[in-house]
Structure to design on (480 residues):
């Protein structure tokens, strides 16, 4: 019976049925239906993450944190938080001093990335598991930056630092040290693939392609130029990039900072935002950290390809001469 | 130029290499809880609120003794960042015993000498937040004293 219902929905989605499905599919796929279902249902309303291996829980960390080919990496907004205690064995990578060029607003060059990995005992075969404060904003940012340099084995600790701490897991102030490795200098930085610049965001806007603004509703509307609880970071104008849709990053998380189930994420981004597999999508926020979180959701949890993070974000767009702005609700 | 207790703290931080500076800041942050009001203490002014610039509620409590010297207590919500905690402990200790007017006239340039260039960034402008709040409560006290004198 369940199989028949699912099949009927697939036919409807393909335009060969006579009635639209009355509700979103919420039932589990039955054995045998999966293959026939996968074309439509698994793409639009998946029952599992596209890359479930990209998320680990605390138990996984406990079991694998001493593995030679695993490196736990903490990245935070609170600059001294790692120093106050962290997961045993975790190293600290700071979004600004480690990942960003100290003169130009840009990321470090490939040789600096190789140095960063080398001094943290990371090789191209190391599985890097990121976690941090603020529901993993900066963990996702660091993961995205690692992907910029082509490092492939990356994961996020679901729930981040807060959940680890809330569960009463072990923390230490001992700074982990690992033998220096010789990480080969990446041949390129994958800016073109996963990063958008201002002119590309403008082209996205002009072409009416998907632009997702993950800031708070007040920032999107132009009522405020910084999120609540944060200082003004030097933006002159408020609003959003014309054509952008508002979907605050937090929509993708539960109260304990874990990611929502695949079906809920699909409803948010496919149904409410109208995103489709294969379509170029650009996400942005204010400096690129909240949008890294959404980039991770879209790329790893929903399996969308061609998602780029506009890390210049509103601190660039809101100050940029000639950049068009919308202030609509 | 700075109150002697604060000057001593500034000199200590400036003498430390970066790693020890961080450790000392964390140590001060650990001690921030000791700056909370103690049972039986009374204050002339209390200012407990959550501002947009800070991640959680911060309370400032002012005592002024018979000699006109100020003493501060502070409460911090759990989400307050580590540097803010450190500055709380540093300022409660460093400004203890100064008059409210002396606190008001204190320049803020010493903050970066304590924190160091490595840890100062736009998102961490809250390193000035505690000083701003302490000055704020001193200003209210000072203005009330002046108004009382005029009346």
């Amino acid at each position: 019976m369940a199989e028949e219902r699912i099949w009927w929905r697939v036919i409807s989605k393909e335009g060969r049925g006579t009635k639209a499905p009355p509700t979103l599919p919420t039932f589990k796929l039955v054995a045998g239906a999966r293959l026939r279902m996968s074309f439509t249902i698994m793409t639009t309303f998946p029952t599992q993450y596209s890359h479930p291996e990209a998320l680990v829980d605390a138990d996984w960390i406990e079991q694998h944190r001493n593995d030679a080919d695993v490196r736990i990496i903490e990245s935070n907004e609170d600059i001294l938080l790692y120093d106050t205690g962290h997961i045993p064995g975790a190293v600290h990578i700071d979004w600004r001093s480690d990942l960003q060029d100290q003169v130009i607003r840009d990321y470090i060059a490939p040789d600096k990335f190789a140095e960063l990995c080398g001094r943290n005992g990371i090789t191209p075969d190391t599985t890097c598991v990121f976690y941090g404060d603020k529901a993993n904003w900066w963990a996702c940012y660091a993961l995205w930056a690692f992907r910029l340099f082509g490092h492939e084995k990356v994961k996020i600790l679901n729930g981040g630092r807060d959940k680890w701490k809330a569960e009463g897991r072990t923390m230490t102030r001992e700074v982990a040290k690992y033998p220096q490795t010789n990480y080969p200098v990446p041949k390129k930085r994958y800016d073109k693939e996963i990063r958008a610049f201002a002119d590309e965001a403008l082209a996205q806007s002009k072409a009416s392609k998907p632009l997702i603004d993950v800031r708070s509703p007040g920032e999107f509307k132009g009522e405020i130029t910084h999120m609540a609880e944060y200082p003004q970071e030097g933006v002159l104008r408020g609003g959003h990039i014309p054509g952008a849709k508002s979907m605050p990053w937090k929509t993708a998380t539960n109260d304990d900072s874990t990611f929502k189930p695949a079906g809920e994420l699909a409803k948010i981004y496919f149904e409410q935002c109208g995103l489709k597999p294969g379509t170029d999508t650009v996400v942005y926020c204010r400096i690129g950290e909240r949008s890294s979180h959404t980039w991770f959701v879209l790329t790893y949890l929903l399996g969308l390809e061609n998602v780029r993070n506009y890390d210049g974000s509103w601190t660039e767009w809101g100050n940029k001469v000639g950049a068009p702005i919308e202030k609509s609700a | 130029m700075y109150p002697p207790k604060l000057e001593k703290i500034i000199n200590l931080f400036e003498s430390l290499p970066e790693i020890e500076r961080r450790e000392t800041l964390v140590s001060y942050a650990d001690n921030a809880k000791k700056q909370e009001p103690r049972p039986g203490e009374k204050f002339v002014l209390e200012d407990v609120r959550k501002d947009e610039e800070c991640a959680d509620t911060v309370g400032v409590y002012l005592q002024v003794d018979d000699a006109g010297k100020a003493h501060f207590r502070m409460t911090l919500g759990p989400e307050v960042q580590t540097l803010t905690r450190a500055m709380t402990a540093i300022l409660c200790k460093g400004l203890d015993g100064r008059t409210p007017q002396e606190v008001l006239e204190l320049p803020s340039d010493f903050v970066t000498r304590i924190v160091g260039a490595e840890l100062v960034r736009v998102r961490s402008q809250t390193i000035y937040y505690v000083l701003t709040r302490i000055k704020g409560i001193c200003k209210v006290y000072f203005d009330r004293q002046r108004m009382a004198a005029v009346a």
